[in-house]
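As described in the Methods, two query proteins were run sequentially through the folding procedure within a single session, without resetting any intermediate state between them. The first query and its resulting structure tokens are shown here.
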Amino acid sequence: MSKYEDIYLRLPIFLQNILCSLEGLRIQYTRFNKEFYRYLKEAEERSSWSRDQLFEYRDKKLREFIMYAFNNVLYYRKKFREWGIDPRSIRSVEDLKNIPILTKDEVKKNFTEFISEMIPKSKLVWVHTSGTTGGGFRFYTTKDSIWQQWAIWWRYRRWHGIPLNAWCGYFGGRSVVPITQKLPPFWRYNVPGKQILFSGYHMNKENLVYYLEELKEKRPLWLHGYPSLISLLASFMIENNLKLDYQVKWITIGAESLLDHQEYMIKKVFEVEPKQHYGLTEPVANISECVEGNLHVDEDFAVVEFLPIGDGRYKIIGTTLTNYAMPFIRYDTGDIAVLDSNLKTCNCTYGGRIVKSIDGRKEDYVVLKDGTKIGRMDHVFKDLVNIIEAQIYQRKPGEIYVRVVRGSKYNFEDEKSLLKELRKRVGEDTEIIIEYVDSLFRSSLGKLRFVISDIKEGKID
């Protein structure tokens, strides 16, 4: 937690709302400018392109990007020579197969060598992500890359009729409400961004009725966030025979896989089909659901490869076409796609390849002593770049084991920061045991489950 976050959480609620809106104003000003709208217009024009047109466009961008990386990025200049690959020989995605897979750890080890020599330091934008392994990861991007990414995300939303000025009830991992707060409101407002930011860390049986009351009062037509959180609200409404007094028009989900029982509960309660989207802060892959209910690779945004691992499952490997500040070529996302050879065409106008589902983003809940369920805990690790990977294990409510694989620079200050971030989300009543290990448990497919629960209430599938 930064010192600014620490100060924010100590402020009175009305000041927290003002700061949320000021941050929202900053985001509106920097993210949604004329360049964003230009990229959005161009992206929407490509919505009717055939697969051949998309592939031709993608491969042209790829050729330009590969040559740029070779000429301006030290890491690739050295590696292409070491690999014995002439960058001019890479004409399409099929030619990438001779380039080794790039891991997050490889980027961390050679960080400065990945930074483009052509981008002035003043133009670099610092971003961070936690990913699905719990290892914090920071890297540079550019405003231009961010505008292009948001244009693709808003193209998907506009496919489904969501206007840019729609009010949104957001259910995610942002710590906008102090974990110590025991009374409502368990949400804050971003007025310029038209968001009600619902806390994902106060959703127990005693508090969920207040969430429902806020929805009834403000009546946002669009709900967005983690399916584990939106389905928690839906489950509560089913259990208590409660309903909204208005009709939600759109529900979009991200950051986690949408499980069958979650989809069933959301549809039953809100009478809306939740729409899925897969994207990463590292702009190396993007997959969006179309109006026909199929997931399409956004071929015009990044180069996405599917490497088979058996049983119809494929590793998602991505190459950015937009981030010229730190080019990632054949980057291992850590996620898995399920493909179906029978799903080749779609009745929508977009020609991107079809994906049956995304795997690898499923997590159990952490259950607090009072029964509150906390989902998607990876935000804890976003700034902890000296942690290689981590995993949370729970065998009884109110107690968690945090298994940590330390990097070479990990120190006592990192442990203090880790505990502070955890306390922000699970409070002082939860016992936290940190275990330092050499490796973490993985599934037979090699996937890391970030939260593993051995208690019934915490199971997500």
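Immediately afterward, the second query was submitted; its sequence and tokens are:
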Amino acid sequence: MALLNPTIALALGAAFLVLWCYQRHRPYLAVLAASYALAAGGFLFQHFTLPAGLAPSKFLSNLCFCLAGSCLVGAIVARHGRPVPYVGIGVLAGSGMAAFSWFLFVQSDLTWRILVVNFALGGISLLAAAELRVVRGNGPTEKMLFVLALLSGLNFFVRTLAIIIANGPFKSYDELYASSYWTTALLLHALLSLLIALCLFTAAALDVVWALKAETHTDPLSGILNRRGFEERSTVLLDQCARAGFPLALVLADLDHFKALNDQYGHEAGDHPVA
């Protein structure tokens, strides 16, 4: 059971890394690979203590979790064309780790360490949901990611509070690992990780499909619709306007003296006004 979550995370991270190797123009895929690799490291440091001691191991574990959540949210937001909220992510992750360090090295309290890290990750998840909510032209994958971001936030806030209130404070890590909190944390992390990865793989595949469609429907020099793209788009517009009863007009434009420009300066110079 201890190796289930890091194995899943490493497998998903490797898949995103391979995908990025074939799509270097999509850097968010590399960030996703780093996110899942960091999550795997977080679980490994939870179960295997470093020679430096228990406290440094737990600190590194939770640092990996916070970095993994930050990378995941940043990659999702960047993929949808939104500016990454670096300040919000940094404040939530930084304050969470600062509070965790206080309750680890200064005033040792395991329950409060659990709370502050979960609240930080929950805030980061809700930040992703807020960014996805305003994305225009949401498709099924975007809506699914929005729902998963909300569910992740509820998981970190509601589940954590409910179990701690029901079971009382934790005194040791042995007690924590034997509790329903840790069991549900492992299961929900595995489930949410797989669902989020599935949505992101689907989104990456759709990106490729739309890119190929754009290549076949647009002129590579000017970026405007070619004959095939124009016929398809105009057919849709004609149907929409006919159903709505709206008038439709076609505006034609031409470039004067274009042949003379090509003849005098060459085709490369003639490409500039077109582009």
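The chain has a mean pLDDT of 89. We note this only descriptively and draw no conclusion about the first query from it.
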